[in-house]
Amino acid sequence: MNRRTIIPAATLLALLLPAAALLLFGCKKESPAPAPDPNPPTKPAEPPKPEKPDEPADEPDKPDEPADQVVSVTGISLDNSSKELGVGESFTLTATVKPDNATDKGITWSSDNPGAATVSGGKVTGVAPGAAVITATTNDGGFTASCTVTVVQKVTGVSLDRKSLELRKGETFRLTASVTPKDATNKAVEWKSSAASVASVSKEGLVTAVSKGKATITVTTKEGGFSATCAVTVTQETPPESVSLDRAEALLKVGETLTLTATVLPRDADDKSVTWSTSDEKVATVDAEGIVTAKSTGTAVITVTTTMGSLTAECKIIVQKKPSDKIPGEEL
């Protein structure tokens, strides 16, 4: 027959209180982790995800520059290194300071010859003929750049001493060109004929009549291209080539006359007219027809001159006393 063990109530209470306390405050021991399964179940493969477009890489952050950082000037340049300028003319030089972000881009302008050219704020003005070096200097660092300016008195016009001219074949005439202003630096000119077969012109302005017709002679300044013209008409007349007298010397007595004859060649010369003159009217005179009259003892030279070409010939006239002239008191 089984015997039952009776546990006293106090003993049973002592055994149950600690367990009840653990349940009440959640302070139970953790169970050891289960061992990994050597054959885990295989999961189905996931579908590939769509690729995202590459995003630009973020630029590395630049360190912030202090607001008061100074950028120094490293150089300066000008848009012109040389320039020709007329008196009274102006042009503006442009200066470029480097780098572009330089803190102080201030510059100072100067001219080494203000008598020739002045400068203000880059504006250069020609004052008088000569040369000047214009310099730009940076306030920061003292860097420089320069431009050589040559100031000239520019030509403003040209004129000729004749606007028209009439020449006979073979004749010449020198035209004179006047360039203005008188103190122009470059007075060089060029000559040209519109018809050199009618009238030619040399580089000195000497016009030569070549054949009958008309031509225009033009002079042009090399500086500025100013021009002036002269209208030339060439006639076909034949000029005289020589003139001679029928006497080279004659002996006359006071009161006598002598007619001199002039011969102009060639015989077909268009103008054979001549003029007469005497070297001493007290000794001998001559009229428009070549008639010489002895006035008093002595010697005179009679000259004949062609109107065209101014060709000349001479005759020496010796005047003596008349045979009847007697000295008072002289016996025969």
SSE order and pairing:
Blueprint: H1 9-25, E1 75-78, E2 82-86, E3 90-92, E4 95-98, E5 107-111, E6 117-120, E7 123-126, E8 130-138, E9 144-152, E10 157-160, E11 164-168, E12 172-174, E13 177-180, E14 189-193, E15 199-201, E16 206-209, E17 213-221, E18 227-235, E19 242-245, E20 249-253, E21 257-259, E22 262-265, E23 274-278, E24 284-286, E25 291-294, E26 298-306, E27 312-320
Parallel strand pairs: 2-9, 11-18, 20-27
Antiparallel strand pairs: 1-4, 3-7, 5-8, 6-7, 8-9, 10-13, 12-16, 14-17, 15-16, 17-18, 19-22, 21-25, 23-26, 24-25, 26-27
The average pLDDT value, as a whole number, equals: 86
What profile does the largest beta sheet have?
4 strands, mixed
Rg, nearest Å: 61 Å
Q: Strand order across the biggest sheet?
A: 2-9-8-5
By oligomeric state, this entry counts as: single chain
Flag low-confidence runs: none
Question: Strand tally, please?
Answer: 27
Which range does the strand content fall in? Answer: 35-45%
Number of helices: 1
Backbone structural class: mainly beta
| Amount of helix | under 10%
Q: In sequence order, what are the helices and strands, one letter per element?
A: HEEEEEEEEEEEEEEEEEEEEEEEEEEE
Q: Which descriptor suits the 3D outline?
A: rod-shaped
Question: Roughly how many Å apart are the termini?
Answer: 243 Å
